[in-house]
Design a protein that fits this description.
The chain contains 15 helices and 36 strands. The protein is of the alpha+beta class. Helix 2 crosses helix 3 and helix 6 crosses helix 8. The protein starts with 6 loop residues before the first helix and ends with a strand. Bound molecules: 2-acetamido-2-deoxy-beta-D-glucopyranose (5 copies). One 2-acetamido-2-deoxy-beta-D-glucopyranose binds next to helix 6.
């Protein structure tokens, strides 16, 4: 027996195992991984809404990178897919992750066979993208956000790689009810009637799920699903870090799986588990380590089960399924413009959380929970009933394209894509997060004032103006290079094949119909160019916001209306046609088993020129006479003395800026339960019911951390207290010191 196998012995071992049991039967090597990527929880602008005032001020639940690796055998083809609780993938993140993988594994994982996809939560710290437009509101590049993401992706792939074992993969599909509506239905109606008539809805409701089963134990090790709905259940005013509805679905799925496994093992050994269960819940299955020099870390389990909820053709799909209404009158907004008597800011989408007046959750938290649960419940259905086993080759194709002036053949004519540009509809925002006053979705003209502002920044060339028609050019980002590029020109596209499933990695947000056209074109090509490997049963999924980010892709017809999605379709009216043309080339090469010879121009690495205008915290002290961790506001016990389900006990501590140490894979707070004269952690800041909130006191000099607990339905009666963990530096060059503090005990009945 060896404890620490070397890579070589591991490979030799795997070859032997593989030859004995799995690979002979057409199965795969499978590994999964998951790592905390929660970035700075104070003072950093959130990525998504472009709202300058939306800066982090605590954590609702943690962000994670979740990965799976599949391989045909130790030496065979493989790919890695990573799903991030982030707004989107970033070119610079991808570049740095690939560099780190190269130094660990040589050429095993590279740009061709690694896909990094974002869930599109709008509640994660920003500043990790390299093009100017995407770091305006974060005041430039934020290294701490960036590093947290890069490290988490690397670690999740390392875990997946190191846990590779023979196993089987199953696929299943089904409809998720009421988790998304079209937020630009008027643009959808521009698509041809015959085309629309082929589909029952103006959004895709299908979820595709992969289930991974370990070949040795027969136990499930993970499931990844793809389904399109925006990560905008949390609003543009939210300041708590959150994975939004997809992160919530993943949290619920992994917790459900833990509790199912625990129930089945529990019933086999003993029925005496309730206290143990509490202990395990807090720590994810491992005994939790006590306060260490690194501060408190509740060790999450080393990913026995990973549940990923991935994004798809999400462009025009809103999770605010009650529709958009005017905030002043309560009436429906203008259908074509999504405005209320001309004001775009008054038209706001409503999530399912709104109508439940008796709810104890704020609307947006409840909406996140409900939309998360709808995806989670469908995923359980698909997971438990998955029958169809995947067999066949693993393969991939990847190419970079310069979208500035791609030639596209359309009905015998040659048309071109344009340098990137945004129209006025972009500034109007969407019903999920309205934009700037003075713009409306569908605008094809810009007033004199904004024209002057635009020309001050950069007057678009006449070529650009003509090329982008009917979009009016508000920001010619593809022609703006000062102080460095405002928008990407080079984009990657990628196809990953796992037997009869094909994943299309797209670097943006395709609208519903754009996604359908792409999937269909790829499928037709695979079937017509292939030798029977592909047929009508081949499953094609779009992985949105993958590898880099370039905003939206609307259809040619939707582009005519210039709503938000069209105004944000960067490369002009033929953007989608260009994608379809180039993906068909990849599909043909895959179907015929040909390699891609011309891999296209590499995207730039702009890390050395990034502007960084956001200051790091420069030292914290507690107020005179106090220590970090001291209570500022203790528990206020309710009448009757004890809290009940749904109550929200809270306590506030003197604390330091949470940016000194992100407590990765740890927690800023726990709810502890008294058990046999010991305090045992029961919930941490990754739990949906525990909130960590951070702010400055009235003097703006001292930090305050509040822990607030929504007493959950499944709670055990008993004695509880809050414990806060943090770290501080006196000055930027001081060593980091860790501290902790506890509230008074309180009863829950
Ligand atoms: C596990 O057992 C608990 C207590 O019996 C029950 O409430 C819970 O629903 C079970 N979980 C699953 C997934 O069956
Ligand atoms: C349950 O645990 C208690 C102590 O915690 C022990 O005395 C008792 O025997 C256990 N019951 C069962 C059924 O294992
Ligand atoms: C929306 O615009 C279309 C044409 O672009 C027009 O036919 C339709 O009447 C408009 N609908 C409403 C409700 O204004
Ligand atoms: C993309 O193409 C444009 C137009 O040909 C060219 O000016 C630009 O340099 C190219 N961009 C890169 C990064 O190669
Ligand atoms: C802070 O200001 C608020 C409102 O101005 C006031 O109610 C509160 O008492 C102040 N708190 C402290 C600690 O001074």
């Amino acid at each position: 027996m060896f404890l620490y196998p070397s890579p070589t012995s591991l490979i030799v071992g795997l070859v032997a195992i593989c030859a004995l049991i799995a690979c002979a039967h057409g199965d795969y090597l499978i590994g999964v991984g998951s790592y905390d990527m929660t970035g700075p929880a104070a003072g950093v602008n959130m990525m998504g809404y472009g709202n300058l005032e939306q800066v982090t001020a605590g954590i609702h639940f943690r962000l994670r990178a979740r990965a799976f690796v599949v391989a045909e055998g130790p030496q065979g083809e493989r790919f890695a897919f990573v799903n991030l609780d982030a707004g989107m993938a970033s070119q610079l993140v991808t570049i740095k992750v690939l560099e780190r993988l190269k130094s660990r594994y040589g050429n095993l994982y590279n740009e061709d066979n690694v896909a990094i996809s974002g869930t599109h939560t709008h509640a994660g710290p920003g500043g990790y993208l390299q093009y100017i437009l995407y770091s305006v509101t974060s005041l430039g590049f934020v290294p701490q956000s960036f590093d947290a993401i890069v490290t988490a992706i690397e670690m999740s792939i390392v875990q997946a790689h190191e846990s590779l074992k023979p196993g089987s993969i199953f696929i299943n599909k089904g409809d998720v009810e009421n988790a998304g509506i079209n937020r630009s239905p008027s643009a959808y109606l521009f698509n041809p009637l015959e085309e629309r008539e082929r589909y029952p809805r103006d959004v895709d409701t299908e979820m595709t799920l992969l289930k991974f089963v370990d070949g040795g134990s027969g136990k499930s090790i993970g499931a990844f699903s793809w389904f399109a709905t925006h990560g905008t259940s949390m609003s543009k005013d939210n300041k708590l870090i959150s994975g939004d509805n997809k992160g919530a679905a993943a949290r619920f799925f992994e917790d459900w799986f833990d509790s199912t496994t625990r129930n089945s093992t529990a019933s086999a050994s003993s029925s005496n588990t309730s206290k143990k269960a509490m202990e395990i819940k807090a720590t994810g299955g491992q005994p939790c380590s006590k306060t260490t020099s690194q501060g408190f870390k509740v060790r999450k389990n080393k990913a026995p089960f990973v549940g990923g909820f991935c994004q798809s053709n999400v462009g025009d799909v809103s999770p605010n399924v009650l529709g958009a209404f005017c905030t002043d009158t309560g009436l429906a907004c203008d259908f074509n413009r999504s405005s209320c008597h001309g004001d775009d800011r008054l038209c706001v989408g409503r999530g399912p959380g709104l109508v439940i007046c008796w709810s104890r959750y704020p609307d947006e938290i409840l909406s996140t929970k409900i939309i998360g649960e709808r995806q989670f419940k469908k995923a359980i259905d698909l997971f438990t009933s998955a029958q169809q086993q995947i067999t066949g080759k693993i393969d991939y194709r990847h190419i970079y394209l310069n979208f500035t002036n791609l030639e596209v053949e359309l009905d015998g004519k040659v048309v071109k894509t344009c340098p990137a540009a945004l129209g006025p509809g972009f500034a109007a925002g969407t019903t999920d997060g309205p934009g700037v006053f003075g713009f409306q979705q569908g605008d094809t003209e810009i007033n004199e004032f904004w024209k002057r502002v635009r020309d001050f920044l950069k007057e678009p060339s006449q070529y650009q103006v003509d090329c982008q028609e009917p979009k009016a050019v508000l920001l010619s980002t593809g022609e703006m290079f000062e102080p460095y590029a405002w928008a990407p020109a080079i984009l990657p596209i990628q196809m990953l094949r796992l037997g009869k499933m094909v994943i299309l990695s797209v670097p943006g947000e395709f609208t519903t119909m754009a996604g359908r056209r792409l999937r269909e074109a790829v499928k037709e090509t695979l079937i017509s160019e292939g030798n029977g490997d592909f047929d009508t049963e081949t499953h094609i999924v779009i992985a949105g916001l993958t590898n880099t980010y370039s905003q939206y892709v609307a259809t040619f017809e939707e582009y005519k209306q210039q709503r938000y999605e069209a105004a944000s379709t960067l490369y002009g009216p033929h953007t989608l046609s260009a994608y379809i043309q180039e993906f068909k080339k990849l599909a043909k090469a895959m179907a015929k088993g040909e390699k891609i010879i011309r891999k296209g121009p590499s995207p730039p690495d702009l890390s050395s020129v990034q502007l960084k205008l956001l200051l790091d915290p420069f030292g914290d002290s507690p107020p005179p006479g106090k220590n970090f961790g001291d209570i500022e506001n203790d528990i206020t016990s309710p009448k009757g003395g004890s809290f009940r389900k749904g109550d929200r006990p809270s306590a506030t501590f003197w604390s330091a800026n949470p940016r000194y140490d992100l407590l990765t894979e740890g927690t800023f707070g726990v709810v502890e339960m008294l058990q046999a004269e010991r305090w045992v952690p029961a919930y941490d800041d990754d739990d949906f019911c525990l909130y960590f909130k951070w702010k400055l006191d009235n003097s703006s000099l001292y930090g305050l951390a509040t822990l607030e607990w929504e007493v959950p339905d499944e709670v055990s009666a008993g004695v509880y207290r809050f414990r806060h963990f943090g770290s501080a530096k006196k000055t930027t060059i001081s060593p980091t010191k860790y501290f902790t503090g506890a509230s008074s005990a309180f009863m829950v009945s």
